[in-house]
Amino acid sequence: MPSARDCATAWLLLQESGHGNPEAPLDLATWCELVSGNPEPLRRAASWLWLHSDQLWFRSRPQGITPRPLNELRQRRRERWLKRRSQQLRQLWHGLLQGRCPFPAELLAPEQRLQLSLLEQWAAEDCSTPLPSDLRQGLQAAHCAAEPGAIRHLLVDLGHWNPHHLPSLSRSSWALGFSPELEAEAERLLAAHAHAQPGDEQRLDLTSQHCVTIDDDDTRDIDDGLALERGPGERERLWIHVADPGRLIEADSPLDLEARRRGTSLYLARGTLPMFPLQLSTGPFSLRSGQRCAAWSVWVELEASGAVAVSGVERTWIRPAYRLSYADADELIELAPPQERDLARLHDLLLRRRQWRVERGALLLDQPEGRIRDAQGQPTLDVTEPGASRLMVAEAMILAGAVLAELGRQQQLALPYRSQLPAELPPAAELEALPPGPVRHAAIRRCLSRGHSGVEPAPHFSLGLAAYVQATSPIRRYGDLVVQRQLLAMREGRPPLTADQLHDLLASLEAPLREAVQISREDQRHWQQVWFAEHRGQTWRVQFLRWLRPQDRLGLVHCEELAMDLPAECPAGSQPADGLLLRVHLVDPLRDQLRLIASA
User: Fold this and answer.
1) Per-domain residue ranges of the chain
2) Mean per-residue pLDDT for 442-469?
3) Which CATH superfamily is domain 535-599 in?
4) Which of 159, 209, 266, 425 would bridge 102 by S-S if both were Cys, CB 3.0 to 4.6 A apart?
């Protein structure tokens, strides 16, 4: 074969001597003699092979051999360099995939960055764009199947996927945060809070009233408080105060439309993604202790039976005395110190009200509830106990909802009423045969229908109420803010939303509310899987509750230690209340897999 140096020299000689004219080609023998000085048949055959290889310098055609023009030579050199560079980058990319070690994305060429983005798209369960054959070869070299779960594992190893990333959250309104324009509007409202707003002068001043707020330790947006007022004789009046964000947020304003688009605050293992910007939801919207706060206040006087004797609704100013955690409130209720006797009395009154609802068919299904929290990437079990103060606050909120629903019914006011169809429960003897607590609750819950939202009042079966409306979390639920606006329109003599208008508004909230439930469930399922992955060697005592899919031996069990109802593979023939041992058979959070087995 001719050497590259000799061929380059021959090309240069021909160019300089003017023999590079394509109209005067050289025959093979002449060209061979020029390059090697020896036109013998063996060298001539080798030269012919070389000319027909992927060489740069000469063109070989039937009419003869000519040197390539300089511009074509440069173009072919560049194409060859680009091809070689592309092969090097491809080998580097496949080597990175195969090595499964973290690397910066800047190390990749644009084409490989696009492929990395495509892998991230597939990991987020968007497989609409096919993987190119080159990328599939790289995945094959990395022993990674072309499916979302395996790709997530690969991307975690490569440092390009958060192992706790929720694909459904990344495509939602909450993940986008608030735009700079909305943040600026929030700052404007924050400044306006200190100034008088329309209707402020008509509020009832209750700032001297002893009001307390009770919530979880980590709650930052406080939207309800309680107070007890003693009047002449033995008259006792309960006050249920609810935050009034409508003082600053006007209907159809930019922040109102954003809150409507979200529909609710989103509760995740790592915390809350709020419906309103944090500086508002935890600032002037909240019932902060020691500060004058705008509120809607429901007052109620109960009969001895627990029925509502008289009630009313006011727009007020309040000044919460202090904030209590549920643990602190439980202690005050139990000890009932003289300086804080109102709390214990509030508990007694609301216990009476709770009993009144039970006598009208309300179902008490309270039990400890376990959730997995995200403590900076580490799963922790948080069990919520239904203590005295938690039940008291819940009953107060139900009472406020019942009072407002009755007011709406009397005034023929369209509100987002919550209702539930009657259910046919198991016979009393059958329920009595089941142990109280989770096993009996499961037998009851399977008979209940889902709650329903409508613009006309209707009975709520499990609450034991003729009508009910959710109205005590306007910072966290857009529907509760709508209730306040309907009440305000009625008080000010303005036309409230008609039933048809409210129906359309509630219909627009269905999609974001459904999305919030889906994201919250996906988040909790993921963190359960992470938690079980860290405790895969343990076993837990559980009680069998009921069958979910008997043909697959899939049942529902209750673990008292974790305060959770969990699906698990159970022994055939299991009956409610049977004791079983639960263990982890398979868990893979990145593939969204958890298989639990309960054995006798």
Assistant:
1) 4-68, 74-161, 173-527, 535-599
2) 96
3) Nucleic acid-binding proteins (2.40.50.140)
4) 159
